[in-house]
Amino acid sequence: MAALSLTPFSPYTPVSVIVPLLFVLSLGMAREIWEDLRRARGDKEVNSRQISVYSGGKEERKLWKDIHVGDIVKVEGGNYFPADLLFLFSSTPDGICYVETKNLDGETNLKVRQALECTMCLTEDDLKNAQWIVKSEVPNASLYTYTGLLQCPDGHSFPLSPPQLLLRESSLQNTGYVFGVVIFAGHDTKVMQNATPPPSKRSRIDKALDTIMWFMFGILFSLSFVTGIISAIFTRNRVPDMYYLRPYENNPYFNPRRAAVAGIVSFITGVVLYGYLIPISLYVTLEIVRILQALFMGQDLHMYDSETDRPAKVKSSGLNEELGQVDTILSDKTGTLTCNQMDFCRCTIGGTSYGVGQTEVEIAAHRLGMSLGKVHANEKPLEEYQQQADGKQAVDEASDNISTQNRPKVKSFNFFDTRLLGGNWMKKDDAATIRIFFQILSLCHTAIPEGSPDDPSCVQYRAESPDETALVIAAQQFGFFFNKRTPSTLHVKEANFEGLEIDRTYQLLDVLEFSSTRKRMSVIVRFPQGKLMLLSKGADSVMFRRLGSSNTETVMSSTLQHLRLFGEAGLRTLLFAYKELHEEEYELWKTKNIEAQSTIGKEREKKIEEIADEIETDLTLVGGTGVEDKLQEGVPECIAHLASAGIKVWVLTGDKVETAINIGYACSLLRPEMEKIIVTLQDSYVQQSAKRMNGDGLGREEHLKDPDERVKEQLSEGLQSMEVSTHENQIVSEGLELMPWHKAQELKSSSKNLERLTHSDSSRGPNSKSSSGKFSDIITNAQVEENKQSVAGRGPTSKNSSGKFSDLITKSQVEEDKQSIAGLGMNLVNGVSSNNLQNGGSKKSFESEAGGKHLRASIAQEFALVIDGDSLAVVLADDKLQELFLNLSKRCASVLCCRVSPKQKARVTKLVKKGLGEDKLCLAIGDGANDVGMIQVANVGVGIAGVEGAQAAMAADYAIGKFRFLERLLLVHGHWSYRRISILILYFLYKVSLMGWIAFYSNIFSFFSGLPLYNDWYASFYSTVFTALPVGVLGTLDQDVTASECLRFPQLYRAGKERELFNKEQIIYALANSLYASLVIFFFPVALYLLEAFRPGGQVASLQDFGAALFTGLVLVPNLQVLTIVQYFTWIHHLTIWGSIISWYVFLMVYGAFPPRLATVAYKEFLEALAPSASYWLLQLIVVAGALLPDFLLRSIRWYCWPYDYQLIMETSTNQDIRHQEPESH
Fold first, then answer.
1. What CA dihedral angle connects 1137, 1139, 1144 and 1150, to 10 degrees?
2. Which of 649-653, 793-797, 1026-1030 has the lowest mean pLDDT?
3. In terms of DSSP H, where are the helices of 569-684?
4. What pLDDT is stored for residue 1159 in this prediction?
């Protein structure tokens, strides 16, 4: 359009078209330039840092940007590393240093880096003639892996691994200085390799806006094409008769002999004239509004985490409205739903369980009336098993002395059992077994103590995970105080059987590190007595297979039983074992291990794991631990409210099925009224061990059945159970169709109360289903007996063991039961009563069959799917199973994926996103580095900056401090943003279309000559000045309901999920409304000024008078239209609306005061022509009323007869406020 304005037949001057376009583009360019300058300034600051470099025995200062591979640098404490360095030696004699990697992964825990033995004793003088050869892997983005080989001058080679690598952007802490040689510099460093842009995400509204733009372009070209055709026909047939225009001589563009040229010229003129149909400034307005919305989100104190001093942070403001349309949430568990603050709660040693008190899961189970330990019918409950454990009297005494909340006296230690505490374990018969268990706790880890070795209360442990910290602290509480670590020794202050503390030093020979693949870690240590011991801990699923034949069946079975019960109580479990090594065996293994570590490349990790597998066999079982990761504050309430909003919640966890299910109940992911569908390829561990020890194994049919078939069978059974339940509840749904919605809500509330009292979580095989939620649970006990008698003998006997009355009802009973159902109470969900509306004077109530469709609660049965990692792996490998899995999961309110590996998280998220399609959105939330994949794959990614670092938060679109803030982020800010952006776009289409339609009408009256109706600058400032601010304020501040009402009525969120405010119907209505308003704005002045006198002297209105009067209506109507849209008025709204209107009159007066050469037709237009004319002011009143009244009436009728949910809430709040203001009657 701007280019076409340069043509000689453009209706507008080039300046008036190009200047507004440049203004709009400059806003976007200014933001980009500002970000580029800020980034360049930061880069310059980093590259200009100085560092000490040793070359030829001399020290010199160099800039970071001048450092090259092979340089030896010295880094002082507190400074950042300028490149990826090979750690040579440090100021400490043991060759270690402490590194903070906050800038890499957000973790504030200090990491230990260890120099090689061949370099740790070097000095600065040794660097003068140093000659080493380093063979390194190629540059890559993996922050946690590194392979290389260092060849010393004496010919010996030493393998290099991550402990010898100091990464750029990490800082040196608690160490005087370190020396290192540059391995990777510049863009080859690992941090720069990771500096890849995140995947581009666009909101659904943005994608829809692209379609709308093409549609508007279609309208523009259609109108222009019609203009060109009619103009060509008119030029050929009519222009020859207009001899006074001399068409053959003066105007080559309207020559009848060249009608086609005239048509093309008119087409181009029409494109420029009608070009305001394209809302170019909408994109800039959207960007500004979204940034302002993001600022408000960041300033929301309700999403500020005081513990970490972190406010909510928006990194992708272009997805703000997506927060209001989420259908499915995929969440990590550890650190996301939980605090990632581990507490040692229970342990099992030698087949005996220790530890009393209640976990959060047990407290939640008691609140829900559930009994733990009865997931399998042939097993005893946890409480009964604890009472039968050794030392019943001690357990009883401990239970009497512990509080219900079981609050820990020591951080990370929430254990109480008099049989072990206070040195009482030494009096037991199996004290030797207990001792080796505590020794494993104090030795098998990578934690580093900080503080005085002589004062346990001052020591803090730096560990790679909170689990390790809890286990080391537990060992300390039991009398095994780990107080010092060196590269080759571990120092523990132990309590002996005489009650004295003895300092023992253990020689650390090897560490077989933990990984997500191995699921275990081991250390090889030499005890003070000279014994070589392999101490190991890990997940029971992998450790059990490595136990030797010397273990007794009783201890193995009891230990596994205890671990399963710990898991059901919501505890994270580990299995502990050891192995005594022979010198020859160890030396042979050591040789193989060195060879494997000397390998360079991708095969190194695989070879190291294979070598570790060789020695981690034939282990002796000692016991296990149960560590509790408490739920974050507000998690159950948050998930419950999200579920009420119609959002499906998936939790992806590495826990066992039993553990995950009970934690699901504790956090409200699973609810008693739900039917659980469990898909698994594994039996419980107790059943596995029983079969293995009895030599039975799996049955022949089970053994021969392919895993794919087993998973397919279970998924199909789940779908069938859904169909059966849906059919059973169809009768109830038919009854509810004729019932006022608040009564239907009462039924659901009543049913939930009964279900909560009568729930029994019994398992019936792979597809365990709850027996609640049926029609019989809704009816009171008295009604059940009465109705049972009335229908006795009518139908077949129910085969359901729970005796569900719904199975006896036939279609002939529907009408009778409808009447009995309709007689129940009047309570409304969330405490709002329909009587509030009726008493408040409203002419309608919540009983309206048409209104409140989301607030009308559904009584349909809810389902929950539980699937383990093995079954999930089978599903992900088969397209047909994926389709079956998606079909089942999309019909479930909650999905719990257990034993999920980090790699599976992203694949599951990708599958869910694909299954939901373009119509529904998925959101992923996590807190760790292993959650980054699913966060980036999901439509919207939310990161939590927690104990595991800030990598998830850095890669996410939104960052929050706690999971509970997600409720406010979605239900409040998401709901508001969706509404604001939707209304903003619809209003923008409305106001720009007004100009386009009017330009088309005026062109018809000017015989498609392209003559503009008003001054060029009127049109130029229309979208950028006269109507810009109200829509911006509307998109930034408008609220349909308050934040508290958004949280009180989560059902309001469903409006965004179902696209109530932004869909084809709303777009068509906005365009139709603009078409009608444009007719009023154009033809009312035509009717008034066509034949009537305008000036006092009796002259009719000139073209400039008509155009200015018409444009006044064009300014008034869209600005005043905002008044009918806004639901939340502030002084800012009034200032922008009335200020925009006033700006038009100010512009007319100021621009009209310019010389005629500049003001052209606007010269003195307002002061001398418009203002003195009474018809001008009367016209504006008529135009505004005529243009806005029909839309206002339609909105009012819609509100009265078919109200939206937010309108019902607004009316309820208004009536309540009126009643509170009325004086009390005495």
1. -170
2. 793-797
3. 583-597, 603-615, 635-644, 657-666
4. 79
Q: Collapsing DSSP states into helix, strand and coil, what is residue 153?
A: coil
Distance CA 1210, CA 1042 (A): 9
Which range, of 259-263, 601-605, 871-875, averages the lowest pLDDT? 601-605
At 855, list the tokens: 């607030």
Would you say 966 and 942 are in contact if contact means Cβ atoms under 8 Å apart? yes
| Dihedrals phi, psi of 792, to nearest 5 degrees | -60, 130
* Integer Cα distance of 133 and 832 in angstroms: 77
Between 462 and 178, the more confident residue is: 178
- CA geometry: angle at 623 spanning 632 and 364, to 5°? 30
Does the annotation count 126 as an active-site position? no
pLDDT, tens digit (0-9, with 9 covering 90-100), for 948-979: 566 778 788 898 988 999 999 999 999 999 99
- Measured N-to-C along each axis, helices 975-1005 and 204-237 cross at an angle, to the nearest 10 degrees, of 0
Helix (H, G, I), strand (E, B) or coil at 325: coil
Handedness of CA 1210, 1214, 1215, 1219 (dihedral sign): positive
649 three-class SS: strand
Amino acid at 517: T
- Average pLDDT value for the chain: 78
Q: How many CA atoms lie within 13 A of 1001 on its CB side?
A: 20
Arithmetic mean of pLDDT, 389-409: 43
Q: How far apart are CA 471 and CA 414, in angstroms?
A: 11
pLDDT classification of 398: cutoffs 50, 70, 90:
very low
Whether 522 and 509 have beta carbons less than 8 Å apart is answered as no
Q: How many helices (H) and strands (E) does the chain have?
A: 43, 32
pLDDT tens-digit map of 719-753: 888 877 766 655 555 554 445 544 544 544 444 44
The 3-state DSSP class for residue 1170 equals helix
User: Using CA atoms, how far apart are residues 491 and 503, in angstroms rounded to an integer?
Assistant: 7
Residues 6+ positions from 638 with CB-CB distance below 8 Å: 963, 964, 966, 967
Task: Spot the catalytic one: 71, 105, 332, 777.
Answer: 332
3-state secondary structure of 415: coil
Q: Is 355 left (phi over 0), alpha (psi -120 to 50) or beta?
A: left
Instruction: Give the residue among 157, 151, 158 at the shortest CA–CA distance from 131.
Output: 151
- CA gap 467, 685 in Å, rounded: 23
Is it the case that residue 805 has pLDDT exceeding 70? no
In this predicted structure, the answer to whether residue 856 has a pLDDT above a threshold of 60 is no
Across 105-115, average pLDDT: 73
pLDDT at 131 over 90: no
Please compute the mean of the pLDDT values over residues 1155-1167 and round it to a whole number.
82
Distance, in Å, from the CA atom of 699 to the CA atom of 697, rounded to the nearest integer, reads 7
393-424 as b/e: b if 16+ CB within 10 A: ebbeebeeebeeebebeeebbbbbbbbbeeee
601 contact partners, CB below 8 Å, separation of at least 6: 137, 147
Q: Confidence class of residue 308 from pLDDT cuts 50, 70 and 90? A: confident
Q: Which residue matches tokens 């666009």?
A: 202
CB of 942 closer than 8 Å to CB of 967 = no
Measured between alpha carbons, how far is 1052 from 1206 in angstroms, rounded to an integer? 7
One DSSP character per residue, 793-858 reads TTSPPP--TT--GGGG--GGGHHHHHHHHHTS----GGG--HHHHHHTT-SS-TT-SSS-TTTS--
Structure confidence at residue 1137 (pLDDT): 93
The SS3 assignment for 269 reads helix
Lowest mean pLDDT among 225-234, 790-799, 874-883: 790-799
User: Are 767 and 712 spatial neighbours (Cβ–Cβ below 8 Å)?
Assistant: no
